[in-house]
Amino acid sequence: MFDIYYTVWYNVAGEKMNTDEKIMEKALEAFALNGYENIGVQEICDISGITKPTLYHYFGSKNGLLTHIMATYSKRLIQDISVASEYHGDLPLTINKTVKTYFSFAHHHRAFYRLLLNLYFAPPQSQFSIIAHHYMKEQYLILEKLFFLASQDHGNMKRRETRYAITLLGFINSYIGMWMNEEVDLNDDLIFSASHQFMHGIYS
């Protein structure tokens, strides 16, 4: 029989965490700091306080654990930016809200965002890179929709929607990368200046 623990854990908000959530959190921290390929199943079990059968029961394998982590956190990010990027005629405001949402998500889920970027820039043939590219593409499509709708009000933007989406996400990720390296703070001043700088590039 599987040796499954039912220890009660709590997250930073003081909310109870299930065993699978605890495993995901501990594994995510390890993957983000040390790289997915450098962390073994036994190490995940040790830092999570579980046995291998417990991990296999919930996720099937180490790859299954990574896939579950990517799906869970990416779904949250995509939901957040889908709401923030809804266009209602005010493009500067929408860009500001979108940048703020990305910065806020990265701030609250730093380990995941670092892992996402690490996997995205992994060798193209890597299965981990493929996973990251899938979720990045979902983000591009959301931002592309924003610029497509905005182009109905701003004729000079037509047929440039994809380019703007790629540029905005790259712009955002550059700042988040700098923040992770402690070069900038993801504060309101940076949100305003980054949004303004991007908008200036569109209108110029």
Spell out the blueprint of helices and strands.
Blueprint (H helix, E strand, L loop, with lengths): L8 E2 L5 E2 L1 H16 L6 H8 L3 H8 L2 H23 L6 H18 L1 H11 L6 H24 L10 H20 L7 H16 L1
Antiparallel strand pairs: 1-2
Quick rundown:
It contains nine helices and two strands. With 204 residues, the protein is mainly α.
Structure description:
This protein starts with 8 loop residues before the first strand and ends with a helix. It is elongated, with a radius of gyration of 19 Å. It has 9 helices and 2 strands. α5 (91-108) packs across α9 (188-203). The chain has helices at 19-34, 41-48, 52-59, 62-84, 91-108, 110-120, 127-150, 161-180, 188-203, and strands spanning 9-10, 16-17. Strands 1-2 form a two-stranded antiparallel sheet. It has 204 residues and is mainly alpha-helical. 71% of the residues lie in helices and 2% in strands. β1 and β2 (16-17) form a beta hairpin.
